[in-house]
Design goal:
Strand order of the largest sheet: 1-2-3-7-4
Largest sheet: 5 strands, antiparallel
CATH topology of the largest domain: Gyrase A, domain 2
Structural class: alpha+beta
Distance between the termini: 22 Å
Shape: globular
Number of strands: 7
Radius of gyration: 21 Å
Number of helices: 9
Helix content: 25-40%
Low-confidence stretches: none
Strand content: 15-25%
């Protein structure tokens, strides 16, 4: 990607994952950023990069044996908009550099996550931290009505900030379905760890959608690594 590029995938109604930068920018002609992994791995032999089929074998070897330090030579920076409840799961991955939209300094945007009726799920009996099959329509509609009521808090939140209530305390009235944004920079090794957990079928679908979009954005830049992954 060049300096003016921004590759973006929309998520749900108001969310997105945008790839805004990557490193390395400079790669040998005809190669991809995968070459930075190979270059780092071979540095002790002084061989630099080899032809692509050998590079593919080396990257597969590194991933298979978890020799992943060379993957840290590649970094990606994303701009992401997501519901706060997704962000709170995401931030558990503490290996990234993150700068988030501040509701202390700014008014939160009037954007909320509302699942489709099919995505209102029953609590799983086998997975205590997740849901499985769709809820019956009546209960799902009751839940969506609850979300509408929580969204109605936004106008009151906005009115109170207009009356002078400090933003830092007014934000306490907002639900976790409201959207936040952040810039998130991470090396490829830790991105792959994130993806291995958040693209898994046991991950919550809302964060899984973001992880899948992230994978789709990087696979054209590091295709050999993503193929091996």
């Amino acid at each position: 990607m060049n300096g003016d590029s921004r590759w973006e995938i929309p998520i749900h109604d108001h969310g997105f994952v945008a790839l805004v930068d990557s490193m390395p920018r400079l790669v040998p002609e005809g190669q991809t950023a995968d070459s930075a992994i190979v270059q780092a791995a071979r540095v002790s032999y002084g061989a630099g990069t080899k032809k692509v089929n050998e590079d593919r074998g080396l990257i597969r070897y590194l991933l298979r044996h978890r020799h992943t330090t060379p993957l840290e030579m590649i970094e990606f920076k994303f701009h992401i908009a997501m519901p706060i409840f997704v962000a709170r799961q995401w931030i558990r991955h503490r290996t990234a550099n993150v700068n988030e939209y501040s509701a202390r300094y700014s008014i939160m945007p009037d954007r909320f996550y509302r699942p489709s009726i099919e995505n209102v799920r029953k609590q799983s009996t086998s997975n205590r931290q997740g849901g499985d099959e769709p809820m019956d329509v009546g209960t799902a509609e009751e839940f969506l009505k609850l979300l509408e009521d929580s969204e109605a808090l936004y106008s009151r939140y906005h009115d109170l900030t207009e009356k002078g209530v400090a933003r830092e305390i007014a934000r306490a009235a907002l639900p976790v379905s409201v959207f936040t944004e952040w810039y998130w920079k991470c090396d490829l090794h830790n991105i792959l760890h994130f993806l291995s957990l958040r693209m898994d079928k046991h991950a919550q679908i809302e964060i899984r959608d973001y992880a899948t979009a992230m994978y789709d954005l990087i696979k054209g830049i590091v295709p050999i690594t993503c193929e091996a992954f």
